[in-house]
């Protein structure tokens, strides 16, 4: 299983792409097209939102599992984009009938609610993810399997949801939805997506029983988890190890390895506490053309490595090894602060606070590491890294309580190697 240990965008797409070289299957556990995985292969750059990046490896099959939420038109667009680049999906990509659908009225609610929140906005991707999960929990959602219904029954169910939406939209100030174009769009998408539908849980269990190697991909990151993140500044699914099991139907006892992906510093997009945020570091990284969101293009907020946060993530997910990315982002720095504790009213906290408002009042306690001030992008082995970079990585591993596994010093597949 591969999960993000910070606020998403840790480089999971890249790590998954590398690990998929040894896998038969990749299952995407949760989230929707709020996620964006960027994979660079040679000169080609692929940005995937819903389809697991394993699809870029010809021998790998992929499942979008029941814990995910799927925007039908968005998924069709992604499939078509892959076909245009010569990547086959039929017979390789499978969509769990259990996955819930994200429909245009969910986007209207997401965007309308954010507008209403004003300064207090969550900073969502505006893709309708929260409202789709809210409908799922309220037991009024539509599931991917319903795309296989007769055209008239599917239209009836969608029209019904839009009618209810439009009634409430008047009161809430959300955009109203015209049913006809939505019905046309969904019917077209349904035709294309039907052959991909399956019982996601039966498929997962059959694949496991046949002894195939499976990678489970968690989207977003631990601190965007609806239960364990910086609530309410979170996404609406479970981005942690437990969520990966619930989302795929794979039992915890079947998980052998939990790879926690993390950056050598920290970023987040959207609002919410981020006590190691540092404008200078952001300026530096943005100036290097990095840390812009692959889904929304937003400049990510940037800050120093937060060991308090990651130590919690390591425990929450039962991480067995770390995959540390973006080390090269720190190459030019003479001094690198790392947060080892939170200071609150004269006390030092070793665990992150429960309340986002308390979290925002904490101040970081930093330990300063010497920078290596030389490029790491050409490193292909652990021994190629500057001694100070190796010391920095080993210290982080010790602080968070998990061993180093994979290191990444650039976007290319070849810029990834194992520790030791
Ligand atoms: P939503 O998932 O669109 O509802 O957004 C909720 C929060 O999660 C916002 O802060 C988003 O910026 C953040 N978020 C959602 N998906 C991702 C992701 O893939 N990477 C990083 N942040 C994300």
| Molecular shape | globular
Number of helical stretches of at least 4 residues: 12
State the fourth-level CATH superfamily of the domain at 258-420. Adenylosuccinate Synthetase, subunit A, domain 3
* Mean of residue pLDDT values: 95
CATH architecture of the domain at 258-420: Alpha-Beta Complex
Strand order of the largest sheet: 1-11-15-19-20
CATH topology of the domain at 258-420: Adenylosuccinate Synthetase, Chain A, domain 3
Low-confidence stretches: none
Strand content: 15-25%
Main beta-sheet strand count, sense and barrel state: 5 strands, mixed
Class computed from helices, strands and strand pairing: alpha/beta
- Ligands in the structure? inosinic acid
Q: Kindly report how far apart the N and C termini lie.
A: 22 Å
Helical percentage: 25-40%
3D architecture notes:
- This protein is an alpha/beta fold.
- Among the domains are: 100-198, Adenylosuccinate Synthetase, subunit A, domain 2; 258-420, Alpha-Beta Complex (Adenylosuccinate Synthetase, Chain A, domain 3), CATH 3.90.170.
- It is 33% helix and 20% strand.
- It has helices at residues 12-20, 72-84, 104-117, 129-137, 151-172, 179-193, 200-209, 241-248, 279-287, 307-317, 356-361, 387-400, and strands at residues 2-4, 25-28, 37-41, 44-48, 61-64, 69-70, 93-96, 100-101, 197-198, 214-217, 259-263, 266-268, 301-303, 305-306, 321-325, 335-344, 347-349, 363-370, 404-408, 416-418.
- A five-stranded mixed sheet has the order 1-11-15-19-20, with helices on both faces. A five-stranded parallel sheet has the order 9-7-5-2-10, with helices on both faces.
- Helix 2 packs across helix 6, helix 3 (104-117) packs parallel to helix 5 (151-172) and helix 5 (151-172) crosses helix 6.
- The chain is globular, with a radius of gyration of 21 Å.
- The mean pLDDT is 95.
- It binds inosinic acid (IMP).
- Inosinic acid binds next to helix 4.
